[in-house]
Amino acid sequence: MLALVVGATSGIGHGIAVTLASQGHSIILVGRSSEAATRIIEECKSKGEGTFTFMKVDCFSLNSVRTLCSSIPKLDWLIMSQGMATIQGYTETEEGFDQKLSLHVYSRFLFANLLEEKINESEDGRVMSVLSGGVHSSYSGYSNDFELKSKYSVKNAADAAGFYNDCWLDVMSGRNDNIKWGHAAPGFVNTKWGTEMPIVLRMVIRTMQKAFGRDKFKCGEYMCEGLVNMGKGKVDIIDEKGKGGGKVTKIHEQAKEEVFEKLSELMKQWL
Prior knowledge:
Layout: E1 2-6, H1 11-22, E2 26-31, H2 34-47, E3 52-56, H3 62-70, E4 77-80, H4 99-120, E5 126-130, H5 154-175, E6 180-184, H6 199-212, H7 216-228, E7 236-238, H8 252-266
Parallel strand pairs: 1-2, 1-4, 2-3, 4-5, 5-6, 6-7
Helix pairs in contact: 1-2, 1-7, 3-4, 4-5, 5-8
Keywords: Oxidoreductase
Pfam families: adh_short (PF00106)
InterPro entries: NAD(P)-bd_dom_sf, SDR_fam, Sec_Metab_Biosynth_Oxidored
């Protein structure tokens, strides 16, 4: 299988890439750091006999995401783990969208939609978003403040991102059951997560990660277990141990179509 792993040059994406390599898969690593990618490709080569390549992209830029997707000739699996952790308020990218939502929602939505046709040609197509499946709350402002321009907070941004991922993945699973779709929560992992935080808070987070965080390669194993065990017909909500069958939020059914339509309208320039 050929897997495209977004966010593969650090953290959880790194752990997933190495696990997939050890299982015999070929990988396209996607991220921002060419230097890190070179090291991780060598690591993958030491674990497996697949082919390993790197494509550089900044997922803040939706133009870059579209350009990258147009250059992918074929694909079996898409795994997305790009993200950031800050306590900043609404902060726009050059394209006019909030940075967190661009990484956690918009870029993921685009990757899945732009690559769906190619993944659909696979005998075993799979799409997984690694973010907060089963551990976030709903975001009730999806109808009147979809982009969180008025109701932005760290909690609302986190809940909206997870909630929107549940919704768009579920709608896509309903229209294309040839592909298996999943939303996973990786749990608390010892990575460089939180490097954008203020220094005091960053030091606290790093101490907690070292003391209580799961190894990123163990996390990668769990996420890959969830990936290969995903079911068909609806989005599979996967926990930190790679077990599926988790629950969506209470307002999921009433909101999912509207969320998908709003995302499609917001992203229409790139679709």
